[in-house]
Design brief:
Elements lengths: L28 H10 L1 H7 L5 H24 L6 H30 L6 H30 L5 H29 L6 H20 L18 H18 L1
Helix pairs in contact: 1-2, 1-3, 3-4, 3-5, 4-5, 4-7, 5-6
Length: about 240
Protein backbone atom coordinates (compact mmCIF):
# COMPACT_ATOMS: atom_id res chain seq x y z
CA UNK A 1 0.00 0.00 0.00
CA UNK A 2 1.44 3.31 -1.08
CA UNK A 3 1.69 6.12 1.43
CA UNK A 4 0.96 9.72 0.54
CA UNK A 5 3.41 12.27 1.88
CA UNK A 6 1.84 15.26 3.59
CA UNK A 7 3.32 18.62 2.69
CA UNK A 8 2.76 21.49 5.10
CA UNK A 9 2.04 24.37 2.70
CA UNK A 10 1.87 26.85 5.56
CA UNK A 11 5.60 26.55 6.06
CA UNK A 12 6.39 27.15 2.40
CA UNK A 13 8.10 30.56 2.08
CA UNK A 14 6.25 33.14 -0.02
CA UNK A 15 8.57 34.89 -2.47
CA UNK A 16 8.70 38.66 -1.98
CA UNK A 17 6.97 40.88 -4.50
CA UNK A 18 9.30 42.16 -7.19
CA UNK A 19 10.07 45.88 -6.90
CA UNK A 20 7.93 48.10 -9.12
CA UNK A 21 8.52 51.62 -10.46
CA UNK A 22 5.37 52.59 -8.57
CA UNK A 23 7.22 51.85 -5.32
CA UNK A 24 9.87 54.54 -5.90
CA UNK A 25 9.11 57.18 -3.21
CA UNK A 26 7.65 60.48 -4.37
CA UNK A 27 9.59 63.19 -2.56
CA UNK A 28 9.02 66.92 -2.78
CA UNK A 29 6.30 69.19 -4.12
CA UNK A 30 7.35 69.21 -7.77
CA UNK A 31 7.81 65.45 -7.83
CA UNK A 32 4.29 65.03 -6.48
CA UNK A 33 2.80 67.28 -9.17
CA UNK A 34 4.73 65.53 -11.92
CA UNK A 35 3.65 62.11 -10.68
CA UNK A 36 0.01 63.22 -10.65
CA UNK A 37 0.01 64.09 -14.35
CA UNK A 38 2.47 61.45 -15.57
CA UNK A 39 2.05 58.48 -13.21
CA UNK A 40 -1.24 58.76 -11.33
CA UNK A 41 -1.19 55.04 -10.49
CA UNK A 42 2.12 55.55 -8.70
CA UNK A 43 0.48 58.16 -6.50
CA UNK A 44 -2.41 55.82 -5.69
CA UNK A 45 -0.06 52.96 -4.83
CA UNK A 46 1.96 55.13 -2.47
CA UNK A 47 -1.16 56.38 -0.72
CA UNK A 48 -1.28 52.88 0.78
CA UNK A 49 2.36 53.04 1.89
CA UNK A 50 4.14 54.34 4.98
CA UNK A 51 4.77 57.81 3.48
CA UNK A 52 1.11 58.45 2.63
CA UNK A 53 0.74 61.28 5.14
CA UNK A 54 3.73 63.18 3.77
CA UNK A 55 2.50 62.70 0.20
CA UNK A 56 -0.97 64.03 1.04
CA UNK A 57 0.52 67.03 2.84
CA UNK A 58 2.82 67.83 -0.08
CA UNK A 59 -0.04 67.67 -2.59
CA UNK A 60 -2.16 70.06 -0.56
CA UNK A 61 0.78 72.46 -0.14
CA UNK A 62 1.57 72.31 -3.86
CA UNK A 63 -2.09 72.97 -4.68
CA UNK A 64 -2.18 75.98 -2.35
CA UNK A 65 0.96 77.46 -3.94
CA UNK A 66 -0.48 77.01 -7.43
CA UNK A 67 -3.73 78.64 -6.36
CA UNK A 68 -1.80 81.59 -4.92
CA UNK A 69 -0.01 82.06 -8.24
CA UNK A 70 -3.24 81.90 -10.23
CA UNK A 71 -4.85 84.26 -7.72
CA UNK A 72 -2.20 86.89 -8.41
CA UNK A 73 -3.04 86.65 -12.11
CA UNK A 74 -6.75 86.95 -11.33
CA UNK A 75 -6.00 89.98 -9.16
CA UNK A 76 -4.33 91.84 -12.04
CA UNK A 77 -7.79 92.65 -13.41
CA UNK A 78 -8.58 95.10 -10.59
CA UNK A 79 -5.05 95.41 -9.15
CA UNK A 80 -4.59 97.24 -5.87
CA UNK A 81 -5.85 95.23 -2.90
CA UNK A 82 -6.88 92.35 -5.15
CA UNK A 83 -3.25 91.51 -5.92
CA UNK A 84 -2.98 89.98 -2.43
CA UNK A 85 -6.64 89.42 -1.54
CA UNK A 86 -7.53 87.34 -4.61
CA UNK A 87 -4.67 84.83 -4.11
CA UNK A 88 -5.52 84.36 -0.43
CA UNK A 89 -9.23 83.94 -1.17
CA UNK A 90 -8.74 81.49 -4.05
CA UNK A 91 -6.16 79.35 -2.26
CA UNK A 92 -7.93 79.40 1.09
CA UNK A 93 -11.40 78.93 -0.34
CA UNK A 94 -10.63 75.99 -2.63
CA UNK A 95 -8.40 74.11 -0.18
CA UNK A 96 -10.98 74.65 2.56
CA UNK A 97 -13.73 73.39 0.21
CA UNK A 98 -11.79 70.18 -0.31
CA UNK A 99 -11.24 69.67 3.41
CA UNK A 100 -14.87 70.23 4.42
CA UNK A 101 -16.04 67.82 1.70
CA UNK A 102 -13.52 65.13 2.70
CA UNK A 103 -15.65 63.48 5.44
CA UNK A 104 -18.59 62.96 3.09
CA UNK A 105 -16.34 61.41 0.44
CA UNK A 106 -14.90 59.00 3.02
CA UNK A 107 -18.41 57.89 3.96
CA UNK A 108 -19.39 57.46 0.30
CA UNK A 109 -16.19 55.48 -0.26
CA UNK A 110 -17.05 53.12 2.59
CA UNK A 111 -20.59 52.68 1.25
CA UNK A 112 -19.11 51.92 -2.19
CA UNK A 113 -17.06 49.05 -0.76
CA UNK A 114 -13.74 50.87 -0.95
CA UNK A 115 -11.38 49.37 1.62
CA UNK A 116 -9.29 52.50 2.05
CA UNK A 117 -8.11 54.38 5.09
CA UNK A 118 -9.01 58.01 5.67
CA UNK A 119 -5.50 59.07 4.65
CA UNK A 120 -5.92 57.28 1.31
CA UNK A 121 -9.24 59.01 0.60
CA UNK A 122 -7.65 62.31 1.68
CA UNK A 123 -4.90 61.60 -0.84
CA UNK A 124 -7.45 61.25 -3.63
CA UNK A 125 -9.00 64.60 -2.67
CA UNK A 126 -5.53 66.17 -2.46
CA UNK A 127 -4.74 64.79 -5.90
CA UNK A 128 -7.95 66.24 -7.36
CA UNK A 129 -7.16 69.59 -5.76
CA UNK A 130 -3.56 69.60 -6.98
CA UNK A 131 -4.45 68.67 -10.57
CA UNK A 132 -7.10 71.40 -10.62
CA UNK A 133 -4.57 73.93 -9.32
CA UNK A 134 -1.84 72.83 -11.71
CA UNK A 135 -4.10 73.21 -14.74
CA UNK A 136 -5.13 76.68 -13.57
CA UNK A 137 -1.44 77.61 -13.53
CA UNK A 138 -1.27 76.37 -17.11
CA UNK A 139 -4.21 78.64 -18.01
CA UNK A 140 -2.70 81.61 -16.14
CA UNK A 141 -0.90 83.20 -19.16
CA UNK A 142 -4.17 83.24 -21.11
CA UNK A 143 -6.03 84.71 -18.14
CA UNK A 144 -3.34 87.38 -17.79
CA UNK A 145 -3.80 88.49 -21.40
CA UNK A 146 -7.53 89.01 -20.89
CA UNK A 147 -7.09 90.57 -17.42
CA UNK A 148 -4.90 93.30 -18.87
CA UNK A 149 -6.86 93.89 -22.06
CA UNK A 150 -10.57 93.91 -21.14
CA UNK A 151 -12.71 95.82 -18.66
CA UNK A 152 -15.73 93.48 -18.77
CA UNK A 153 -16.16 91.92 -15.33
CA UNK A 154 -18.76 89.30 -16.43
CA UNK A 155 -16.52 88.23 -19.31
CA UNK A 156 -13.53 87.79 -17.00
CA UNK A 157 -15.65 85.92 -14.48
CA UNK A 158 -16.96 83.60 -17.19
CA UNK A 159 -13.42 82.96 -18.43
CA UNK A 160 -12.20 81.99 -14.96
CA UNK A 161 -15.21 79.73 -14.48
CA UNK A 162 -14.57 77.95 -17.80
CA UNK A 163 -10.92 77.42 -16.87
CA UNK A 164 -11.99 76.11 -13.48
CA UNK A 165 -14.54 73.69 -14.93
CA UNK A 166 -12.06 72.28 -17.45
CA UNK A 167 -9.46 71.82 -14.70
CA UNK A 168 -12.06 70.23 -12.42
CA UNK A 169 -12.96 67.70 -15.13
CA UNK A 170 -9.41 66.36 -15.20
CA UNK A 171 -9.16 66.41 -11.43
CA UNK A 172 -12.39 64.41 -11.20
CA UNK A 173 -10.95 61.86 -13.62
CA UNK A 174 -8.12 61.24 -11.15
CA UNK A 175 -10.61 60.79 -8.34
CA UNK A 176 -12.65 58.35 -10.42
CA UNK A 177 -9.52 56.37 -11.29
CA UNK A 178 -8.72 56.27 -7.59
CA UNK A 179 -12.06 54.65 -6.81
CA UNK A 180 -11.32 52.06 -9.50
CA UNK A 181 -7.85 51.44 -8.03
CA UNK A 182 -9.35 50.85 -4.59
CA UNK A 183 -11.97 48.52 -6.08
CA UNK A 184 -15.19 50.44 -5.53
CA UNK A 185 -18.31 48.38 -6.32
CA UNK A 186 -20.56 51.43 -6.80
CA UNK A 187 -20.06 54.95 -8.16
CA UNK A 188 -23.38 56.53 -7.24
CA UNK A 189 -21.96 58.20 -4.13
CA UNK A 190 -18.87 59.36 -6.01
CA UNK A 191 -20.94 61.04 -8.73
CA UNK A 192 -23.05 62.81 -6.14
CA UNK A 193 -19.91 63.93 -4.27
CA UNK A 194 -18.37 65.37 -7.44
CA UNK A 195 -21.43 67.57 -7.90
CA UNK A 196 -21.41 68.47 -4.21
CA UNK A 197 -17.75 69.54 -4.25
CA UNK A 198 -18.28 71.64 -7.38
CA UNK A 199 -21.25 73.44 -5.81
CA UNK A 200 -19.34 74.06 -2.58
CA UNK A 201 -16.34 75.47 -4.49
CA UNK A 202 -18.56 77.77 -6.57
CA UNK A 203 -20.43 78.97 -3.50
CA UNK A 204 -17.13 79.58 -1.72
CA UNK A 205 -16.02 81.96 -4.46
CA UNK A 206 -19.24 83.92 -3.92
CA UNK A 207 -18.96 83.86 -0.12
CA UNK A 208 -15.44 85.33 -0.41
CA UNK A 209 -16.28 87.91 -3.08
CA UNK A 210 -14.97 90.07 -4.59
CA UNK A 211 -12.20 88.01 -6.17
CA UNK A 212 -11.69 89.69 -9.53
CA UNK A 213 -13.75 92.85 -9.03
CA UNK A 214 -13.59 95.63 -6.45
CA UNK A 215 -15.57 96.46 -3.34
CA UNK A 216 -15.51 98.78 -0.35
CA UNK A 217 -14.94 95.79 1.94
CA UNK A 218 -12.63 92.77 1.78
CA UNK A 219 -15.56 90.39 2.39
CA UNK A 220 -19.25 90.79 1.46
CA UNK A 221 -21.82 92.17 3.88
CA UNK A 222 -24.75 90.16 2.47
CA UNK A 223 -25.32 86.49 1.70
CA UNK A 224 -25.99 85.36 -1.87
CA UNK A 225 -26.31 82.13 -3.82
CA UNK A 226 -23.64 81.99 -6.53
CA UNK A 227 -26.17 81.89 -9.39
CA UNK A 228 -27.89 85.00 -8.00
CA UNK A 229 -24.53 86.74 -7.68
CA UNK A 230 -23.61 85.93 -11.27
CA UNK A 231 -27.00 87.19 -12.50
CA UNK A 232 -26.61 90.43 -10.57
CA UNK A 233 -23.13 90.98 -12.04
CA UNK A 234 -24.44 90.52 -15.58
CA UNK A 235 -27.40 92.86 -14.96
CA UNK A 236 -25.09 95.51 -13.50
CA UNK A 237 -22.77 95.29 -16.52
CA UNK A 238 -25.73 95.57 -18.93
CA UNK A 239 -27.05 98.61 -17.06
CA UNK A 240 -23.68 100.32 -17.29
CA UNK A 241 -23.50 99.69 -21.03
CA UNK A 242 -27.04 101.03 -21.44
CA UNK A 243 -26.15 104.26 -19.60
CA UNK A 244 -23.15 104.77 -21.88
Amino acid sequence: MESTAYVDMSSTPVPPRAPSPDDVPIRGLLAGLEALIREPRRVMVQLSGPRAGALVRNMFIAAALCYLFYGVVAGTYARGTQLWAAPVKIAGGLVFSALICLPSLYIFACLAGVRARLVEVAGLVAGLTAILALLLVGFAPVALVFSTSTDSLPAMGALHIVFGLVAYFFGARFLSAGFTHFKAVSRAGLKFWMILFLLVALQMTTALRPIIGTSDTILPKEKKFFLVHWTDCVKEAVDKETVK
